[in-house]
Amino acid sequence: MSNQRIEITCSYCGEIAIKRKDNIVSARKLGSPDSCSRVCAQRLISNSKRIVSVEYLLSLTTKTDKGCFEWNRSLNPDGYAQISWSEKYGRRPVGVHKVIYELIYGASPKGMCVCHTCDNRKCINPEHLWLGTVAENNADMKQKGRWRRDWRPARHVGR
User: Fold this and answer.
1) Average pLDDT of span 7-12
2) Is the Cβ–Cβ distance between 98 and 84 less than 8 Å?
3) Which one, of 41, 2, 46, 9, lies nearest residue 25 by Cα?
4) Residue 159 has pLDDT above 50, yes or no
5) Which of 25, 89, 96, 110 has the most beta carbons within 10 angstroms of its beta carbon?
6) pTM above 0.90, yes or no
């Protein structure tokens, strides 16, 4: 057994720690990232299970002839793609188009909503998304002939 020690930088907190080389080598063989303590190791493992990326979300879609990436998973009652993004919204469902927009462009300002140019509620193609107010989204809907008298106003603002 080797007592040789090496310096590592914790992948979670960034602290420098000195560890036995044989412990580091065996942990890396198991796929564990470098950590300074068991607490940081557990946090790294729990965070890695919750990572949401654009690539992952787009892998759960089917491309249509119009260039839409249609969501193949859960839909909300209004037909929009939804996901529970725990690191940002707890376990509350949120629109996947909003998550994609935030991952690429950053958080949308309060009072703004992520709108679709393609009018496909299942679409999460970043090129089909734009940021607008509720009034702009409703005007776009009227202009494209999707307005009905019994239509209720948008509910998805300021979350």
Assistant:
1) 76
2) no
3) 2
4) no
5) 96
6) no
